[in-house]
Design brief:
Blueprint lengths: L1 E5 L3 E8 L2 E9 L5 H11 L5 E4 L2 E4 L4 E3 L5 E3 L6 E4 L8 E5 L4 E9 L4 E6 L2 E11 L11 E6 L2 E6 L2 E3 L4 E6 L2 E6 L2 E3 L3 E6 L2 E6 L2 E3 L3 E6 L10 E6 L2 E3 L20 E6 L2 E6 L2 E3 L4 E6 L15 E6 L2 E2 L13 H8 L7 E3 L5 H6 L8 E3 L6 E4 L1 H5 L6 E2 L22
Parallel strand pairs: 3-4, 4-7, 5-8, 6-9, 7-10, 8-10, 9-11, 10-12, 11-13, 12-14, 12-15, 13-16, 14-17, 15-18, 16-19, 17-20, 18-21, 19-22, 20-23, 21-24, 22-25, 23-26, 24-27, 25-28, 26-29, 27-30, 28-31, 29-32, 31-33
Antiparallel strand pairs: 1-2, 2-3, 33-34
Length: about 400
């Protein structure tokens, strides 16, 4: 081991073996020049380097950015090493990463002006025991996203915490091969969101005190569409009853307070072995993207959804009627007995007439005493027909488990 540089502010350690340089570790402590020291280390880093931030509060006034591959940024614990952007003067994020094979671990980002940590267009990114938070509580002035990997491949989020985002606390968008596990999302508009993504496993997480707990969305007008193969299992999505505080015009601003899980316009989604309850409006909603769009390639309907083996708690005791007509329709059609699971019943016109193909039907089975309400579009429009079904046995079927996400964490 060779000490290359040592000062009060930082220490660079090179690890050598048989004459070969394997890595350098740059140790940085909180100082008045913390921003310059961290950003300089990120610019000058070589592949294989470790940037180690000691315990303490780093007060930063500008965005940090990393574009060097195979670098690790680490602290001494999410409650010990804190990057504080409360006085941020410029930059759209707290930390931006645009390089491959990066590990972020054991630190917090607080009060970023925009997104806390944005990762874009990378292969292999790990967030390990990272916390993002806006410390003044839920408000629309908070940054949109906490952990925000987008357009990336091989994403691991493990043991993380996200609090106070005005859009989504933990968000993965337009990405492929994703694991979100062992994490907590609280007091965000959306706790955990998988959007326009392929092959994702979301498990062993807690989503609580958000507006909506876990969202699996697909939206038009984006380069990657047709979200599919998402497994949501072994999670607790409970007590997500925070009023929606998204800024005006944000699509997530349409999420009703008190929703446990929402699936919108995705295919091949499996929701199983979760605990979902104490959500004011509904525990699970399966819905079509209902807004107008000029995107002719976009398919707005969910299909091949499987919901099984879940435990449901109380729901619907204080439905949010401020976000469109959904809650009021549910209340009226259920005669005040709000269901655990809601499906809006919307499918292409040809399927309304001929029926859905078997492989695209929703399967709801083995969920204890769960209740369901599914709208019948024709009946809903014609007063002399039944507007909805409350018979959960209509959705019984054989579950075809989706494959687990295979992820090599040793990059």
């Amino acid at each position: 081991m060779k000490f290359l540089k040592l000062s009060k502010q930082y220490l660079v350690v090179s690890l050598l073996c048989s004459g070969c340089l394997y890595a350098s570790v740059q140790i940085i402590e909180p100082t008045e020049n913390a921003y310059q020291e961290i950003q300089e280390a990120l610019i000058l880093a070589e592949p294989g380097d470790v940037i180690r931030l000691t315990s303490g509060i780093f007060k930063l006034e500008d965005s940090l950015s990393l574009d060097v591959p195979n670098v690790q940024i680490e602290g001494e614990g999410m409650d010990q090493t804190i990057l504080d952007f409360s006085n941020q003067q410029s930059g759209a994020q707290g930390l931006s990463v645009t390089s491959n094979n990066v590990t972020l671990q054991d630190f917090s980002v607080q009060n970023a002006k925009g997104d806390a940590i944005k990762v874009k267009g990378v292969t292999n990114i790990k967030f390990l025991r990272v916390k993002t938070e806006w410390t003044d509580g839920p408000k629309p002035e908070n940054g949109a996203y906490g952990l925000y990997p987008v357009e990336s491949t091989n994403v691991l989020i493990d043991g993380c915490v996200a609090i106070g985002a005005s859009d989504a606390g933990i968000y993965v968008g337009q990405s492929t091969n994703i694991i979100v596990r062992n994490s907590r999302a609280e007091y965000n508009v959306a706790g955990i969101e998988i959007e326009n993504s392929y092959f994702a496993d979301v498990y062993n997480n807690l989503a609580t005190n958000n507006t909506g707990g876990i969202l699996v969305f697909d939206l038009p007008g984006l380069p990657q569409q047709g979200g599919h193969h998402v497994r949501v299992f072994n999670n607790r999505s409970i007590g997500n009853n925070t009023d929606n505080f998204a800024p005006e015009g944000n699509i997530v601003g349409e999420v009703p307070r008190g929703t446990g899980i929402i699936i919108q316009a995705n295919s091949d989604v499996e929701i199983f072995n979760n605990e979902i309850g104490d959500n004011d409006t509904v525990n699970i909603a399966v819905v079509t993207y209902a807004n107008e769009t000029d995107d002719k390639t976009y398919y707005p309907h969910p299909k091949s959804i499987q919901i099984h083996g879940n435990i449901f708690g109380h729901t619907g005791y204080n439905p949010d009627t401020s976000k469109g007509d959904l809650a009021q329709i549910l209340y009226d059609l259920s005669n005040g007995n709000m269901p655990d699971i809601f499906w809006d019943g919307l499918v292409p016109l040809s399927q309304i007439i001929l029926g859905q193909p078997d492989e695209e039907k929703i399967i709801i089975t083995n969920n204890g005493d769960a209740t369901v309400l599914a709208i019948k579009p024709i009946g809903f429009m014609l007063p002399f027909l039944e507007p909805a079904t409350l018979d959960i046995t209509e959705f019984d079927g054989v579950v075809t488990p989706l494959a687990k996400v295979e992820f090599n964490e040793n990059f």
